[in-house]
Amino acid sequence: MEKAKKQFKVPLLAAVIAAIIAGILGGIVLPDGIIRIFITFNSLFSSFLGFVVPLLILGLIAPGIADLGAKAGKLLLITVILAYGFTLFSGFFTYFVCKYSFPYLLGSIAGNADLLDTAAASSLKPFFTIDMSPIMGVTSALILAFMLGLGIAACDAKSLKKVMEEFKDIIYKTIYKIIIPLLPIYIFGIFMDITVSGQVAGVLSVFIKLVALIFLITIVMLMIQFVIAGLVSGKNPFLALKNMLPAYATALGTQSSAATIPVTLKQTIENGVSENVASFVVPLCATIHLSGSTMKIVACSLAIMMISAMSFDLYTYSGFIMMLGITMVAAPGVPGGAIMAALGILASMLGFDDKALALMIALYIAMDSFGTACNVTGDGAIALIINKIYKP
């Protein structure tokens, strides 16, 4: 995984932003023939994504659950419950904030079902298409992943676990050597198509408003998490949050929970958490605690559903948020990992098509720093609570 990360000279966020800008300019100045080449590429890439998504679910979730089960213990159980609880709170808090604020923020854009339907709005079509049918449905992949993960842990199936770990390595290679490198080209084509169809202004306004709102939600979320941790641990929550700011700043720059672990660990210990507890909680939470990532996925998906006039309710989103919290366990602690793990349930539970999934990826990555920073800073709050429970 580290080798896969090191191959990129340009940060993913910078590549995505450049692709968005270039796509808008390309849609204005390039001839239709060139634009159709990229539309053809997008058609092929989206078909490939549809084929790969069930495999991503199987290859990421099954080994992740097997790893947790293999390390089962009381401390692990409490940490997982806390991380999951924080993640659920983040999802539902974001849902209610966005549900009642988006009608005002999005204004006339909300309910414009044609805004994201570039296939209907654009007269340009791909030169050809290739059908890449997935080998199983998303729901089947989820069920199989949970069955394999729990079964490996319960039976201590070392041989099968090794096979799934090797399959996970193949999935990582697929993500970081195929999907991520091609993603900026895909986003370039999407925004070129959106520009040709005359809808780019509306989509960009959504981007800007979402960034502002998610930044505000991040601040409120962290304050709530540390107030809870302060009440349990007896620590000053605002001082503890201030001590975690170096980890927050590091995550903003790296966009990686895994890369920020050394700084998160150091600042957590400075908050008075014992070294043993911090050394256990911080690396574990870098994998299983993704409050910030959940916040971004819920906010972005809700915006797309409102814009597209897709029906939703609390019942639907409750199931989605609870499943998202479990799915986030499979998210690798690297840029873009969480959204890749979430593609399956976005399609199966919310009904997102390829175009909506592509815009979700673009929106998510454009704000990846905020979510990652929220994730790792919140790890410090969980560590304070665990330290109080297990204080020698």
Features:
17 helices, Proton glutamate symport protein, globular, mainly alpha, 392 residues
**Basic shape:** globular
Report the strand count.
Answer: 0
Strand proportion = under 5%
In CATH, the architecture is Orthogonal Bundle
Helix and strand succession?
HHHHHHHHHHHHHHHHH
Radius of gyration: 21 Å
Span between termini: 36 Å
SS-based class: mainly alpha
How many structural units, i.e. domains? 1
Largest sheet: none
Low-confidence stretches: 1-8
General description of the model:
- The protein has one domain (2-389): Proton glutamate symport protein, CATH 1.10.3860.
- It has 17 helices and no strands.
- It has helices at 2-6, 12-29, 32-70, 74-106, 118-121, 138-155, 158-196, 200-233, 237-243, 245-254, 261-270, 275-288, 291-307, 314-327, 337-350, 354-366, 368-389.
- The chain starts with a helix and ends with a helix.
Please summarize what this structure is.
The protein has 392 residues and is mainly α. It contains 17 helices and no strands.
Write the layout of secondary structure elements.
Layout: H1 2-6, H2 12-29, H3 32-70, H4 74-106, H5 118-121, H6 138-155, H7 158-196, H8 200-233, H9 237-243, H10 245-254, H11 261-270, H12 275-288, H13 291-307, H14 314-327, H15 337-350, H16 354-366, H17 368-389
